[in-house]
Design a protein that fits this description.
- The protein has two domains: 97 residues, no CATH class; 176 residues, Nucleotidyltransferase, domain 5.
- The strands form two sheets. Strands 2, 3, 4, 5, 6 and 7 form a six-stranded mixed sheet that branches.
- It is globular, with a radius of gyration of 23 Å.
- Strand 5, helix 8 and strand 6 form a beta-alpha-beta unit.
- By secondary structure, it is of the alpha/beta class.
- The chain contains eleven helices and eight strands.
Length: 340
């Protein structure tokens, strides 16, 4: 019996017909995709007023630009995959075309301020986040959140393959690990952390939950998160939340399974009754694929590498990318139904 449920039929997968789905809101979704690539840029009156930094009341120098101005520049840099100097040129051209009397942050300022920039987190779904908010959430509704957790690697952009082939470099390419928490219903990325490549995935469940402002109904993750610490982190922050993690193939019930079964014991009992495929359908584990879709969307739109040279700037780079993806998702998302 394989450890992962979706590997259960791998020996005869070619005989299983692929699901067929149809997007029922194709007209709206098609328009939203075109809007994502639009170069139409405008500055609202609130943004123009908040472009300069507020006067500092204490001692010390005052920054020339607000966090909003720096976030605007870093967002354009992430979406159009530009270097700092090219980002400075793009902001200057946009401000010039709009005829605004605003100063342009230079590339050194953008790089330096990225070290300490606090990227706004998505507001709770019932808070009525507007267009100027950082992460969407204007879909409303007060129902608890179903959180999907997954991780992926992002390589550090450095010497290219040509340099390796020419000079025969032996050093391994470095990379970092990005951990995401995704809203199963809306597809928004509601939490993100960046760690070293050796960091355990399960250890980041607590930090991800600390970023979620909504009540959590369930946490779904793959078999790498089958650890006691994951259940403890979820129970500490959301005692009523369900943990949907496939137990290992060698998992055994706890000593109190007969008298006071834990969530993991109940998963083992359900697997014994219905099999792993039956457990997968009964618990809604299939929704975890949406977390993988969010990771794929991040790498296709933002990229699969990190250009910053320090860990704090790399964390800001990831948060800005997540911020941009959530704003794109506000424009529209597909609604598909299964037809075969």
């Amino acid at each position: 019996m394989p450890a992962l449920p979706f590997k259960l039929n791998q020996d005869r997968r070619r005989h299983i017909p692929e699901q067929k789905r149809k997007v029922v809101n194709w007209r709206e979704y098609d328009e939203s995709l075109r809007r994502r690539g639009s170069l139409t840029v405008w500055f609202s009156d609130e943004v123009i007023e908040a472009w300069k930094a507020s006067p500092r009341t204490g001692r010390g120098g005052r920054p020339a630009y607000s966090d909003l101005a720096i976030l605007t520049g870093l967002t354009l840099k992430a979406v159009f995959r530009l270097a700092y100097r090219q980002t400075e040129g793009l902001i200057g051209s946009v401000i010039g075309l709009l005829g605004l009397d605003l100063a342009v942050p230079d590339h050194s300022t953008l790089c330096r301020r990225a070290e300490t920039l606090e990227v706004p987190r998505p507001k709770p779904r019932g808070a009525g986040a507007g267009a100027d908010d950082a992460g969407g959430g204007a879909d409303g509704g007060a129902e608890p959140l179903h959180l999907l957790v997954d991780s992926t690697g992002l390589k550090l952009i450095g010497a290219g393959e040509w340099l390796v082939e020419k000079h025969g470099a032996k050093r391994r390419r470095s990379w970092r690990k990005m951990h995401l928490g995704v809203d199963a219903r809306t597809g928004r990325i509601v939490a993100a952390t960046l760690t070293d490549r050796d960091e355990d995935d399960a250890a980041q469940v607590g930090p991800l939950l600390d970023q979620v402002a909504d009540p959590v109904a369930s946490v779904t993750a793959d078999g790498a998160y089958d650890q006691e610490g994951v259940y403890a982190d979820v129970a500490e922050r959301h005692p009523e939340a369900e943990v949907v993690v496939p137990p290992r193939s060698t998992a055994v019930p706890s000593e109190s399974a007969e008298t006071a079964p834990t969530q993991r014991d109940r998963h083992l009992q359900l697997i014994a009754e219905k099999g792993r495929m039956g457990w997968q359908k009964a618990t809604g584990y299939n929704a975890r694929a949406r977390a993988e879709a969010a990771i794929s969307r991040y790498k296709r739109v933002i990229g699969d590498g990190l250009h910053a040279r320090t860990d704090r700037r790399r964390a800001t780079e990831v948060n800005v990318g997540v911020h941009a993806l959530n704003r794109m998702l506000e424009l529209g998302r597909p609604e598909s139904v299964r037809i075969a």
